[in-house]
Amino acid sequence: MWHNLGQLLRYRGLIQSLVARDLKARYRGSMLGFFWSFVNPLLLLTIYSFVFTYLLQNRAEGLQPYAVFMFTALLPWTWFSSSLTEATGSLISGGNLIKKVLFPAEVLPFVTILSNMVHFLLGLPILIGFMVYYHVTPDWPQLPWFLVIVSVQLLFTAALSLFLSALAVHFRDVRDLVSNLLTFWFFATPIIYSYKDFPNYKNYFDWNPFTHLAISYQEILFFDGGFGHWKWLLALGGGSVVLFLAAYWVFDRLRDSFSEAV
Amino acid sequence: MSSPAITLEHVSKIYRRYGGRQFSTLKSALLSGDLVRKLRPEETFQALKDVSFTVPKGCTYGVVGRNGSGKSTALKLVAGITKPTIGTVQVEGRISALIELGAGFHPEISGRENVFINGIMLGLTKKEITKRFDEIVEFAELTEFIDAPVKTYSSGMYMRLGFAVAIHVDPDVLLVDEVLAVGDEGFTHKCLDKFGEFKRRGKTILLVTHSLGLVERFCDEAVWLDAGEKKAEGDPTRVVGTYVTDVARQEERFLAASDEKAKHDAGGAGQATPAGPVEVESHFGDMNQAGEGRWGSGGVEIASVDFQDEKGQSTHVFHTGELMRVILGVKAASPVRDFVFGIGLFTADGAMVYGTNTDIEELESDRLEGEATVTLTVDSLDLVEGTYKLDVAVHKRDGAPYDYHRLLHTFRVKSRIKDGGIYRPKHRWDFSTAIKFKPPK
């Protein structure tokens, strides 16, 4: 297992060019091309803010401007959920490769996570634009934490993806299961609402790993008053390391079955 | 030439049979609750059984065998794509596997980008690819189209590009699985030249193919796998010879079985005969149009038809130029004075090759009674390779059949020379001194 993990470094060139290929191929033949990476979140943001600020008349105290509040956590969530959905099926759709070419299979889920991460990063300028427009200032001294949050999310997503993609090879319905669970998970996470409004449910929120990522993003970029959630974030980071190793172990155990089962 | 490049030691590969495994969905796994039972070893398929062979460095090694004999599994084990269930596989040096060309090409992006990604996948660095890029494109004959998306390529172009990348990985060990059928004649020659170059540079090649001529011409050693077991190993000519003999034997069995079946289907079971008249069909007007079958009045009966070779051995498989005997066992319950024996020889697609009978050859019948045999000897069976069908008949001079076997008997002719047509006349080539050929290998 450790050996294979080390081998992965040798394949970073492959991961890099596969991510580039993914991004290029995705917009090949479309008129707006890479511009879609900006347009997609922009449209998403417009719809959500229209629904929640005008139709549902959300006037919750402290969540104004609502569009910016919602977007700070929605953008990372989109990265997380589309990574998970795509990564779960990545071994199956890349089956041809696994059967015919010798290379570590974990490259495939990692590539989907990383190319979704690029979309996430390309969405950030939209968020910044809105922050400037609404005069929302981030927590400047705490801003370096942003990198930590992204890293923790990356690790956490990678861990889940490894596990799910390996499982999906043997049980195809994992894919459908995941996409449905993600919808549920989205509403169970304080993204379009604030956890502060539901103090009774704090225990439930605390059990949800993505809560801590969402709150971290919000505290740094949206709320005033420092980054009090860092302990939770680091705990999640530690948990993700363990989870990642466990998932990698499972993946490694199942590795030999992939070329026969996909 | 000494230390081995590839070593397989007592390798067995067992695949689980997913057809029998019912929990391909999570729900059924959970509901049926017999996850463990389903994994029991009887649900398995053994693709390789205790196979060992070593390939010395610089050797070109052929693997032959029927479909499903485990050839490709062996190749995948050497490539490291799958792991052996039992035993060990060791390979020295960098491997490149020509198993499926262009696996991993992305249709939407250009040939150029695909070359880079494919190259990296096969273990090259970006720098190495840049250095070899022009050579690769030139080899694939795609200079004009290299910047077009791969989805616009024809399947030949696709394969050529895949082949070009794989061959330029410059491996120490090259694994080739039946990929020489890519592209046109010219490209195939180029591939063979490339293999030749590999050979000269002392690289190891493992070649899985059905093209036996290639194995004989090209390989230093060969192994024959059959149903997952090693049947023969060593000198390619000998291995291929053993393999071909076995294939012929199997074909013989198959022909004998289908012969038996045809006779059975035609009503009269070959030997045990109905005493009464065999069914008479009214429309036997044009024999050559009729399908297979058997008819006749039964006054004289052809009870058996046997093919024999020179040594008197029954067989259904002959080699071009060999002696063939067709032996008819006939029976007449009461004396018959008017009879003609005849045969008709047809190709598998129904074209008549030859037909004759005793009447045409001016033999006048006198008397036939009881059991007798008729032997037709063909001293030299000058037919090209193929499957042939035989009509045999005994009838009156006016054509009314006693017993007519239409296309019921099949034999096969094999030949090392793949010439065309039906008939191979005895022939030879002579050349004046200005024309030189290389001495045969």
Could you report the average pLDDT of chain A, rounded to the nearest whole number? Answer: 85
Count of helical regions of chain A = 12
What is the N-to-C order of secondary-structure elements of chain A (H for helix, E for strand)? HHHHHHHHHHHH
Q: Biggest interface and its residues per chain?
A: A-B, 27 and 33 residues
Q: How many strand elements of chain B?
A: 18
- The termini of chain A sit apart by 22 Å
Tally of DSSP β-strands of chain A? 0
Shape of chain A: globular
As an assembly, this protein is: heterodimer
**What does the main sheet of chain B amount to?**
6 strands, mixed
Q: Tally the helices of chain B.
A: 9
Could you list some keywords that capture this structure?
heterodimer, A: 262 residues, mainly alpha, 12 helices, globular, B: 441 residues, alpha/beta, six-stranded mixed beta sheet, 18 strands, 25% helix, 32% strand, elongated
Q: What do you see in this structure?
A:
The complex is a heterodimer of chains A (262) and B (441). In chain A, 75% of the residues lie in helices and 0% in strands. Chain A is mainly alpha-helical and 262 residues long. Chain A has one domain (2-261). In chain A, helix 4 runs antiparallel to helix 11 (209-221). The radius of gyration of chain A is 19 Å and the shape is globular. Chain A starts with a helix and ends with a helix. The two termini of chain B are 22 Å apart. Chain B is an alpha/beta fold. Chain B has helices at residues 26-32, 35-38, 71-79, 111-121, 126-140, 155-167, 185-200, 212-218, 236-265, and strands spanning 4-16, 44-56, 60-64, 86-91, 95-98, 173-177, 204-208, 221-226, 229-234, 293-295, 300-308, 317-319, 324-336, 340-347, 352-357, 368-378, 386-395, 401-414. In chain B, strand 14 (340-347) and strand 15 form a beta hairpin. A six-stranded mixed beta sheet of chain B has the order 5-6-7-3-8-9, with helices on both faces. In chain B, strands 10, 12, 14, 15, 17 and 18 form a six-stranded mixed beta sheet that branches. A three-stranded antiparallel beta sheet of chain B has the order 2-1-4. Classes of the chains: A mainly alpha (262), B alpha/beta (441).
